[in-house]
Design goal:
The strands form two sheets. A four-stranded antiparallel β-sheet has the order 1-4-2-3, with helices on one face. Helices cover about 55% and strands about 10% of the residues. The chain is built from 25 helices and eight strands.
Length: about 575
């Protein structure tokens, strides 16, 4: 090997050492690797930032925005609610949750699907008096398997598609991953249904909401002209929400009407509703209600949001109400919901006499809220987001995502443009506010991708990938084809816990392609094995964000992941090669 090849391999080893050490964040490690590659002369200075203009960065960012829009639509949560009353046994609940998160992970990024369904898992666990730690880790693993089914499910699939295009002139299309990914998902779901017994009982930490014993919020909603419940009875409206929302009062023409199950709902009625925040949000959005009477001056911009807060004993709110204090007129704040333990409130939130310990939901300018909350003497609860008062576009986000996927799968437009256009339409139509779009983008991932693309290319430009592939080919020369595919799958699975999964693909995919060429095989099966291996880290909480996401809420320890993940990894290693080669013969 020449000096450039040694330097390229040495840089790769040094980068892996930093990833394993964990002293720096993965995006900072990528920046260090990029700076080192320029300093060593492996990457010309004028090419150092070429990775940030790569289509991969655009695709990943756009996919995250589309994923956030679908998550915000609440349709998956609605599906869970429809199933909730029919699922009473922990086993059926686990199967429904893992199947749903697996299916959703093929439509949106797997971590978005998991985050969306975790609250539903907590609710189902409460209903069946089950420890939620029994659900969270299997759901995380199901989301990883579900992400293998389409190109948008996980970042490695996007990267592998581009490598295939460079090698063969044709990228993997949207659903090329489906046959192998779906097979592994089905096998994984069957294992998780019985393998849950391998998980130890862990106690999740108490959340702030549980510590304060928040049972239900009271809010008001106006029956607008477009509301779908006009002419319905209060009883039928409550039944349509499966009892998760209660109508405690009806205000009509400024007077309180008697609330009976057969009370008819009329236009311009004000309903005083009580329930869990998520249930209230679904009820208001589903029935076409509005949280307040709109007026010409009321046009919240993209900086408008809601914050959940607890009223302290010294708060200026104690002993008064939001209407009397003129919170909206003086500070631009609207009290849209209030919760008081042990009380069934029947007044408008703005008319309730506030007490110390009440939990309030305030809507206003998010930039100004921190100082305003301090003035009012209330403490923000950042443990969970409250989305009351935020309009959701329902099916619009699904339609936009489906259009982008169809355009890509049919070859009508390139992947990058289809998803960038989809993200743009999401913002233009308001299916996702701009502030939420920027929050949805995982900037560290994009920085890492942009920095590592030119670094990974040094393996090819110096010929180091050829050298490594030749060595692997020598080791695999006596293996049957399935054994060679299994070797690539095993190496990718082994490296992923130490590298980010996207970084694993950036390093391994070119090597796998050359490895296949040296053995005289087509590269497709080996690239697919690389993507599957990079997407299947079941052994640690740090190899993939989905695993990290459930660690705290589930109360898991580091070693818990291997107890369930090791046999699942073995199952993927055994089932993966024959599945891959069935649909991608070498």
């Amino acid at each position: 090997m020449n000096i450039q090849q040694w330097l390229s391999i040495g840089l790769l080893c040094g980068m892996m050492t930093l990833f394993i050490w964990g002293r720096f964040r993965f995006d900072v490690t990528a920046v260090i690797a990029l700076l080192a590659s320029v300093a060593l002369g492996l990457v010309p200075p004028d090419k150092a930032f070429s990775g940030f203009s790569d289509d991969i960065v655009i695709i990943v960012a756009s996919a995250l925005i589309l994923s956030a829009a679908v998550q915000r639509s609440g349709l998956v949560e609605l599906a869970v609610d429809r199933l909730a009353d029919r699922l009473h046994r922990p086993g059926s609940q686990l199967f429904a949750l893992t199947a749903l998160v697996g299916a959703a992970s093929g439509l949106i990024k797997n971590i978005g699907a998991l985050a969306m369904l975790m609250p539903a898992a907590s609710q189902l666990a409460k209903r069946s008096e089950t420890n939620p730690s029994r659900f969270f880790m299997p759901m995380a693993f199901a989301s990883l398997l579900g992400g293998l089914t389409t190109m948008v499910g996980t970042s490695p699939n996007i990267i592998v598609s581009r490598v295939r295009e460079e090698m063969t002139g044709q990228p993997f299309r949207m659903f090329d991953y489906l046959p192998t990914g779906l097979g592994l998902l089905v096998i994984g779901l069957a294992f998780l249904q019985f393998g849950k017994r391998l998980l130890p009982e862990r106690q999740a930490p108490v959340t702030m909401g549980e510590a304060l014993n928040i049972s239900a919020y009271t809010t008001e909603a106006t029956v607008a002209a477009q509301a779908s419940i006009i002419g319905d009875t209060v009883g039928s409206f409550v039944d349509s929400q499966e009892g998760s929302v209660e109508v405690t009062a009806v205000l009509r023409h400024g007077l309180r009407a008697e609330v009976l199950p057969d009370t008819m709902i009329e236009e311009n009625d004000i309903l005083i509703l009580m329930g869990d925040p998520d249930a209230l949000e679904r009820a208001i959005a589903g029935a076409g209600l509005i949280l307040h009477e709109p007026d010409a001056s009321d046009h919240p911009d993209d900086q408008t949001g809601v914050i959940e807060a607890v009223v302290t004993a010294g708060s200026v709110l104690v002993g008064s109400n939001a209407g009397r204090l003129m919170l909206k007129e003086r500070m631009g704040l609207r009290l849209i919901a209030i919760s008081r333990e042990g009380s069934r409130l029947k007044n408008k939130p703005s008319g309730v006499k506030i007490q110390a310990g009440d939990i309030v939901v305030l809507q206003g300018d998010l930039d100004a809220m921190p100082s305003q909350l301090s003035q009012l003497g209330v403490l923000a609860l950042a443990q969970r987001p409250i989305r009351l008062g935020r309009e959701r576009k329902g099916w619009l986000a699904i339609v936009i995502l489906a259009s982008a996927m169809i355009a890509t799968a049919s070859g009508l437009v390139p992947v990058a443009f289809a998803f960038f256009a989809g993200a743009g339409v999401v913002l233009i139509t308001g299916a996702l506010p701009a502030e939420d779009a920027y929050k949805a983008i995982e900037w560290p991932i994009l920085i890492m991708l942009g920095a590592l693309i030119p670094v990974s290319e040094t393996l090819q430009t110096t010929g180091a990938s050829n050298v490594l592939a030749v060595e692997l080919a020598r080791l695999a020369s006596h293996l049957p084809p399935w054994g060679a595919v299994a070797m690539v799958l095993l190496i990718s699975m082994a490296v992923t816990p130490f590298l980010n999964n996207a970084a694993t693909v950036l390093v391994m995919a070119p090597i796998a392609a050359v490895f296949a060429h040296d053995l005289g095989y087509r590269p497709d099966a080996f690239l697919m094995a690389t993507a599957i291996g990079a997407g299947c880290d079941f052994l640690t909480p740090i190899g993939h964000q989905c695993n990290t996401l459930v660690m705290g809420p589930g109360g898991y320890r580091f070693t818990d992941y291997a107890r369930l993940g090791a046999p699942l990894s073995l199952l993927v290693l055994l089932a993966g090669p024959p599945l891959i080669m069935t649909f991608w013969p070498v």
